[in-house]
Amino acid sequence: MSLPGNNPARRGFTLLELMVVLVLLGLAASLVGPRFDGVLNFVRGADRVQMLADTLRAARNDAVRLGLPHTVEVDYLNAQLRTVAGGRTESLAWGDANTLLQPGLPDPALKTVRFLPSGSAQRSVHLPVGGEGDQTVHVVGPTGRVWVE
Predict the structure, then answer these.
(1) 131 close to 99: Cβ distance less than 8 angstroms
(2) What whole-number distance in Å separates Cα of residue 91 and Cα of residue 80?
(3) φ and ψ at 72, to 5 degrees?
(4) What's the CA gap between 96 and 77, in Å, rounded?
(5) 44, 47, 70, 90: most buried, per Cβ within 10 A?
């Protein structure tokens, strides 16, 4: 004699039940997935801003420490940051050029910041960073201070 609910033929899920659950999970993922794209774009934009600010601060510190002028080239067209000092050039990939060159971003597409051994910048520069949550990295000429807005 078997007990109710203890039928050996009724263990597990049917194929139809599994298919319904998979379809519901797929629908839920399709509704939630696009929302994460905006979050990822914002994070990528914040990473680019931080990378640019860190590169500028490091160049300023190296100019003071080594007593050599350091130039940072911000190449919006090729999405690269280049540091030039003492005849040496270092390049760093910097995101996606299509994102960086949104309308309203700089012309010319190559901006340079030159830090002198005193720590000051040759001139003040404003470097916009495109993408979600657009921001601008500023370099103040006389002090060489780097800040993000």
Answers:
(1) yes
(2) 7
(3) -110, 125
(4) 9
(5) 70
Global confidence as pTM? 0.65
Give the whole-angstrom CA distance, residue 140 versus residue 73. Answer: 16
Q: Are 52 and 74 in contact (CB under 8 A)?
A: yes
Question: What's the CA gap between 149 and 51, in Å, rounded?
Answer: 14
Partner residues linked to 126 by β-bridges:
138
Report all structural domains of the chain as residue ranges with CATH numbers, in order of start.
39-148 (3.55.40.10)
Which residue bears the tokens 């540091």? 83
Judged by DSSP in three states, 98 sits in helix
Among residues 141, 130, 149, which one has the least CA distance to residue 45? 130
Give the residue-averaged pLDDT of 127-135: 70
Q: Can you give the pLDDT at residue 148?
A: 85
Nearest to 60 by CA among 82, 125, 68: 68
